[in-house]
Amino acid sequence: xxxxxxxxxxxxxxxxxxxxxxxxxxxxxxxxxxxxxxxxxxxxxxxxxxxxxxxxxxxxxxxxxxxxxxxxxxxxxxxxxxxxxxxxxxxxxxxxxxxxxxxxxxxxxxxxxxxxxxxxxxxxxxxxxxxxxxxxxxxxxxxxxxxxxxxxxxxxxxxxxxxxxxxxxxxxxxxxxxxxxxxxxxxxxxxxxxxxxxxxxxxxxxxxxxxxxxxxxxxxxxxxxxxxxxxxxxxxxxxxxxxxxxxxxxxxxxxxxxxxxxxxxxxxxxxxxxxxxxxxxxxxxxxxxxxxxxxxxxxxxxxxxxxxxxxxxxxxxxxxxxxxxxxxxxxx
Length: 332
Prior knowledge:
The structure is a single chain. The chain is α/β, with parallel strands linked by helices. The chain folds into 2 domains: 2-132, Chitobiase, domain 2 (2-Layer Sandwich); 139-318, Protein Transport Mog1p, Chain A. It has helices at 17-20, 23-32, 58-61, 101-132, 139-149, 197-211, 287-297, 305-318, 325-330, and strands spanning 2-3, 10-14, 47-51, 65-71, 79-84, 88-89, 92-98, 160-164, 168-174, 179-188, 220-223, 230-236, 239-251, 256-266, 271-280. Strands 8, 9, 10, 11, 12, 13, 14 and 15 form an 8-stranded antiparallel beta sheet that branches. The protein is globular, with a radius of gyration of 23 Å. The protein starts with a strand and ends with a helix. Mean pLDDT is 92; it is low at 320-332. This is DUF4837 domain-containing protein. It comes from Prolixibacter bellariivorans. It holds the Pfam family DUF4837.
């Protein structure tokens, strides 16, 4: 099978010209090309390339991301179908179909963000797979983190550990034009309030103030609070996790840029591990640089996850209000 073609984020939309120039095309473009919310300037979630069906030849079929459309009375009801590696690999194909133009627009208006999420996650998954490959993975960093701090993370070769203390690590990659940084820090888990947006933001600011200095004396990194920080809680590899995306700045200076962080519970050690990726790249697009950072921090693993899984299961059983005292005792 051929290798997928196209630049990161490039998405081919296959649809007749008459639909593309009307409400259907406007709706598709509105969602796929919407600006990324956590960047200093507008950059589209995906780079959209329109191809009419009659021009959808072999050269386009190897595209990494393809959105196929079908509007026909033969379609009973609107639907979404996901396929992988049909004409190339790694390839992601999403088909959206509906019986008529209006139902397509109505359906895509409801599910457009789902379609975008499918493609964006596909881009991250490609990067994560690449960073886990021995040809790209910095084995020395992963081994050092596991041995000394009891977690692993996949970062590409070229990244190096610049700071390593008892509870803070800074991993960097720098060129004359960009700086990509991963920081990790951990602290005791004391209560559920740890996983609130306010707590995690305050913790972030206290840690980076102490450990991430600015270019001049007395300057340091902090969070830009005037721009809303995105927050979402979910489970990562079975562990309770909170994600934040926002902008950082230098207090007393003029530097700034985007960051993304995940804070995940490590029940075995009774701690919260925060991994953050941030970028400094003035005058450059940052969407793909940040997706690279996200792919790195989402690769985090605990070497004894099996123990965490048992603790998580017991905690879930303890939250079962229908459990009897005898049931609870039997799980200890």
